[in-house]
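From the methods appendix. Each design record in this collection lists the tokenized structure first, followed by the designed amino acid sequence. Records were kept in a plain field format so they could be parsed without special tools. The example shown here is representative of the layout used throughout.

RECORD:
FOLD TOKENS (262 positions):
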């Protein structure tokens, strides 16, 4: 894929951060004897990755704004453009030595995501997309699945943890969807869940209470791969509300109707 200058900057930043995170990931298992020690270590790894990304992106585009998980938001001289960054999506997986986590970088222009990178360093899979240019994984064009029967479809979501208040809603979702599909996965990294919908690995995804940096890059990748992406509540705003639902075109209507039941 011949990407724009901005996309190439994003890819470079993601690879540099990924290299740093992989080095730290190799040390995590040695720290599992001390949960506090491991947690502190991962927090430092997360923040170090964000510093790397911020130096690359803001160094190349000093006038853009910034929204990152680990640092305060910044208003750029150009109010129409901002970076939206999650340096380590899937922190709990990382902490437990599970090789399923990603670097997520999106560029927003006038309220719309126009370029996206989701990089999985553990598997060396780089998902990228630009508005109107399709989506790719390691230079290969990706497309959402063509399954049209719910009973053959695999969906992904997040499950509330630590006593979160949205557990009842999620349990209701699962009660409706599980009898009519081939399975639901919870892998703990929303950016990769959305990229996997784009790659046809999942047929759909939904989740509540996400942050903009969890979804921004992944939603463009899924959309550019041919998936339909909407707010979970019709008329809502995905990035503002933190709720999303997406699926391939053939199955979206039935999937969305199942999840959106009141």
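DESIGN:
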């Amino acid at each position: 894929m011949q990407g724009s200058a901005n996309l190439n900057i994003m890819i470079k930043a993601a690879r540099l951060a990924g290299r740093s995170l992989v080095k730290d990931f190799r040390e995590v298992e040695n720290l599992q004897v001390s949960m506090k020690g491991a947690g502190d270590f991962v927090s430092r790894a997360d923040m170090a990755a964000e510093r790397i990304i911020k130096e690359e992106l803001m160094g190349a585009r000093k006038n853009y704004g910034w929204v990152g998980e680990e640092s305060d938001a910044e208003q750029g001289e150009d109010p129409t453009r901002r970076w939206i960054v999650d340096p380590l999506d899937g922190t709990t997986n990382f902490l437990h030595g599970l090789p399923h986590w990603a670097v997520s970088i999106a560029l927003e222009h006038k309220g719309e995501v126009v370029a996206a990178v989701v990089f999985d360093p553990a598997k060396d899979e780089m998902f990228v997309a630009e508005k109107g240019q399709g989506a790719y994984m390691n230079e290969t064009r990706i497309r959402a699945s063509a399954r049209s029967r719910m009973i053959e479809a695999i969906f992904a979501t997040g499950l509330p943890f630590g006593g979160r208040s949205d557990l009842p809603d999620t349990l209701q979702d699962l009660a409706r969807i599980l009898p009519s599909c081939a399975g639901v996965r919870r892998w703990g990294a929303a950016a990769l869940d959305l990229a996997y919908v784009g790659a046809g690995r999942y047929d759909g995804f939904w989740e509540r209470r996400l942050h903009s940096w969890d979804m921004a890059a992944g939603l463009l990748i899924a959309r550019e791969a041919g998936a339909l992406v909407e707010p979970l509540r019709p008329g809502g705003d995905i990035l503002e509300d933190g709720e999303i639902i997406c699926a391939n075109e053939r199955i979206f209507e039935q999937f969305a109707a199942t999840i959106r039941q009141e």
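APPENDIX NOTE: The two ends are 43 Å apart (CA to CA).
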